[in-house]
Design brief:
Elements (H helix, E strand, L loop, with lengths): L4 H4 L10 E3 L2 E7 L31 H14 L9 E5 L12 H13 L5 E6 L6 H8 L7 E9 L3 H7 L6 H12 L5 E9 L6 H22 L2 E8 L4 H6 L8 H18 L5 E3 L10 H21 L8
Helix pairs in contact: 2-3, 7-9
Amino acid sequence: MTDSPARCKPPKGSLFEPVQAPRGLRLALVFGNEAPGGKCPFYKKQCFHCDLGAGEGFQFFPEMNISRVQFFREHYAEILPNVNHLIVYNSGSTLNVQELSDQTLEAILAFACELPNVHRVSFDSREPFITEARISFFLERIRPDQTLSITLGLESQSEEVRMGFLAKRMTKEQVNGVFDVLGKFANRTAVELNVLFQPPGLVGKEAVEDAQATIRYGLSLMTKHQVLVDFNFHPYYPSWKGTTEFPNHPRAIVQDTIKALILVLREIKSHGGDSKIFVGWNDEGHDLQPALRQRELLLYDPGLREFNRSQDENDLRI
């Protein structure tokens, strides 16, 4: 299988610029999915809110993704020495060998080891693929001063929301199992829990309360398993799949988003420990309301960017 320069370069919406974040300068890298068709295996069956699992429209092969590593090395050459937090996506589960081969991962992990100031490397995955053997594979290939973090799409602590509305078959028992595994490597691992604000089925006060409950749930897992938990907070927006499944569910109201952020930040700080929260504001081009999105970015993006760096609720007074 030969690769082409066009396929080595990610689509425009997936070629991220580095951003200041709670763990320092954060850079997200998107690779192609190596499963048949290039799609997340859960894409058509689960996760009714998510368009990311569609991938880039074709199946990748290891040599294509390895060429993409080289593209990233050259494209980001000037800023790579300053990156502190490297995040790896593939439109699915990066720990699933069917979606991202060991050959590809070897190249990605070697690249992460080259970056002198990267002290956290995050990989997005689903719970069935997080095993002791798989975690060991990663830890054996990163530097001793680097933490392996698993990004887990919990979305909501409510199983009615997660398993009912979103059709994401991820039980709390399975989430607990992820922490059981990572707890065996607690000094070198962390979790980043995705929180979907105002998920289908909830609006207004109920959405704010669900966000608080989801943060509390994540913090309780951190306490129980002694595995550090950070949070990625994503306001809901209408995408193709979300609009198909939930045509009447509105995009998250920014004022409610900010109210929820202030409250969940207080939950995190009152709990103690080193948890952080990051507001994910990039939709990879899937937002079906681009005019509204541009208006929100113009009005609120500067404050949210500063909040991501500072973790200070005063930066949310916008």
